[in-house]
Design brief:
This protein has 44 residues and is mainly alpha-helical. It contains one helix and no strands.
Amino acid sequence: MRRLRIRLIVVELVAANHVRAFGRWWQASARHRLGKLSGELSDD
């Protein structure tokens, strides 16, 4: 039972790490898209 709990903690840590990395990538790509949009708008 104890081993299962340890495994669950490890899985949660790995999942949290992946979510954090995905969130960083998502913010960067969203910022890139917004920058491209505002750049096109300011060209007029």
